[in-house]
UniProtKB/TrEMBL annotation:
Domain Glutamate synthase: 155-473
Top-level lineage group: Bacteria
Gene Ontology molecular function: glutamate synthase activity
Database matches in CDD domains: GltS_FMN
Stored Pfam families: Glu_synthase (PF01645)
GO biological process: glutamate biosynthetic process
Residue intervals passing through the bilayer: none
Family: Belongs to the glutamate synthase family.
Name this polypeptide is given: Glutamate synthase domain protein
Length: 548
């Protein structure tokens, strides 16, 4: 018998007996409170000992609930009282504080030096210039739209990444969109479709179309060209993005149970309410590289010539090069490619997929940038980086590794007031952002929070342009991968561009690639995405001085 079991029987016998005797001989508030306590303890303990399915409750009756109570707010205890400013994941206190400060336009400087270990393995840094300069105004926006695009779009260097209505509350969606309107940047709808809340304030939209084809489908799940045309031709929709995979759960579909499908969600997504809504892992219109490009051309035509691209998390590099081969063979190019990082967030995902699948954003962006150079198509296709972006350095590093613009999601949520409670998948978001509870959702003040989103965007870009000028560069286009220095285990800085061999213009298309690039290129086929991953990757330090 455990100590707590012995305590229970002591309380049930001696404790109750003593309490009853006191109530009989010395009646009073204290006696009755003692009796209520001992009887309550006895009843709860009896349930724990004889009926509970939990071994902890059976072995430690009553007191086991103390553990459950502490565990229920363990994250908050760790966040507020235990963790240092730089050790939390995914966003530490330093990063969260920076977002909060910039969203409120208050002082964002620090005193007494850095808290980071500047000599830590893989620490990223920059080299400054003794000749700082001002960044040119005409370099602060990027034109999207290739040769077949008749309605190009000029985008900000920083924008709102994909977050669906349904994942976020109506007020959160409205605040994000109004912030985008005020700040002159775009708002990605996420794959949940275009809702009234996306349209109410007139902010620029990128309409994301995932494997569920929400907003442009029949009730049976087939693509509906006319439904797509109606939405895509809205003046607020500036670009269309096909989602092949998502960084937080690449290679994984999703199910929206019918119990969660409200009449509003059904109307927006064009789905029935009498059965579960399934988003397959494979996009039904993009089963092969050539099918993907054909779908891109179809959407571009139906939308009246707006920029169309696709989003993916990079996995097997040869499978991305399969799309490259299809581009060369068909002559069809996307207007942009959004590279989602494996460090990306989501409301709900299997732990194994979130922790172990896909390339991180910097690696993925650098690979896609190089691949497009090797294909001879870099000037035709824009790259959007979608990954963890809290600071101006996060933005700069993605642009240096090859991106043209950057999308941010979770830090835009932080600007709305998110506290990283990680309850996004429970519908009990404490700030009313990631929930469909109407009472909680009303806590988001659309006007106030839209200003926070606008401020975070403006102040982060301001810091980015100061950082860029401090490097002696007057345009983001002059950034190069080798300008990002990565600290090696040997204590010396290494250029981030040494991760994979840089390609020259047309090197892949002309058959001049060597090493891993040659192996990936030979394995790729324009008729199928799948490539068997049997290539042995060699650590970079063992390849120095050798070709490839």
């Amino acid at each position: 018998m455990t100590l707590m079991q012995k305590l229970y029987w002591l309380m049930a016998t001696v404790g109750n007996g003593l309490a009853i005797w006191l109530c009989s001989h010395h009646p009073g508030l204290g006696s009755w409170l003692l009796l209520a306590f001992t009887l309550g303890y006895t009843l709860i303990g009896a349930y724990d000992l004889f009926l509970s399915r939990h071994s902890l409750n059976r072995l430690y009756p009553v007191v086991a609930y103390i553990r459950y109570g502490l565990e229920s707010f363990r994250v908050e205890i760790q966040q507020y009282f235990i963790a240092s400013d730089t050790e939390e994941k995914p966003f530490n206190r330093e990063e969260r504080s920076l977002v909060y400060q910039r969203s409120k336009s208050v002082r964002d400087t620090i005193a007494f030096g850095t808290q980071r270990d500047l000599l830590a393995d893989n620490y990223l840094s920059l080299w400054h210039s003794l000749s700082p300069c001002e960044v040119k105004e005409d370099s602060k926006r990027v034109r999207f739209g290739g040769d077949e695009c008749v309605k190009p779009y000029s985008a900000s260097r920083l924008n709102i990444s994909a977050m669906s209505f349904g994942s976020l509350s109506s007020n959160a969606i409205q605040a994000l969109n109004l912030g985008a309107k005020k700040g002159g940047f775009y708002h990605n709808t996420g794959e949940g479709g275009i809702s009234d809340h996306h349209l109410e304030h007139g902010g620029d939209l990128v309409w994301q179309i995932g494997s569920g084809l929400f907003g442009c489908r029949t009730h049976e799940g087939a693509f509906d060209p006319e439904a797509f045309r109606r939405q895509a031709c809205l003046p607020q929709v500036k670009m269309i993005e096909i989602k092949l995979s998502q960084g937080a759960k690449p290679g994984h579909g999703g199910v929206l149970p019918k119990a969660k499908i409200t009449e509003e969600i059904a109307r927006i997504r064009l789905i029935p309410t009498d059965r579960d809504c399934v988003s397959p892992a494979v996009h039904p219109m993009c089963a092969t590289p050539k099918a993907l490009l054909g779908f891109i051309r179809e959407l571009r035509t139906l939308s009246g010539g707006k920029p169309v691209g696709f989003k993916l998390c990079i996995g097997n590099p040869a499978e991305f090069l399969a799309i490259g081969k299809a581009m060369l063979e068909t002559g069809i190019y996307p207007d942009f490619i959004t590279v989602d990082g494996a460090e990306g967030g989501t409301g709900a995902a299997p732990v194994e997929f979130t922790n172990r699948m896909g390339m991180v954003c910097l690696e993925g962006v650098y690979f896609v940038h190089n691949a497009l150079i090797g294909l001879g198509l870099r000037d035709k296709v824009r790259i959007i980086a979608s990954g963890k972006t809290a600071s101006a350095f996060d933005l700069l590093s993605k642009l240096a590794l090859g991106a043209d613009t950057v999308n941010a999601a979770r830090t835009m949520m932080l600007a709305l007031g998110c506290i990283q409670s990680r309850h996004c998948n429970t519908n009990n978001c404490p700030t009313g952002i990631a929930t469909q509870d109407p009472v909680r959702g009303k806590a988001v003040d659309v006007e106030v929070k839209s200003d926070r989103v606008k401020n975070f965007h403006h102040n982060t870009l301001h810091a980015f342009y100061e950082l860029l000028g401090g490097m002696g560069l007057d345009s983001p286009a002059k950034l190069l991968p080798q300008m990002i220095k990565r600290r090696t285990p040997y204590g010396l800085p290494m250029s981030a561009s040494s991760m994979v061999k840089q390609l020259s213009h047309g090197e892949l298309a002309e058959g001049r690639a060597t090493g891993v690039w040659q192996s990936w290129w030979q394995g790729a086929s324009s008729d199928s995405f799948f490539v068997y991953d049997d290539l042995i990757l060699t650590p970079i330090e063992l390849r120095q001085g050798h070709p490839g």
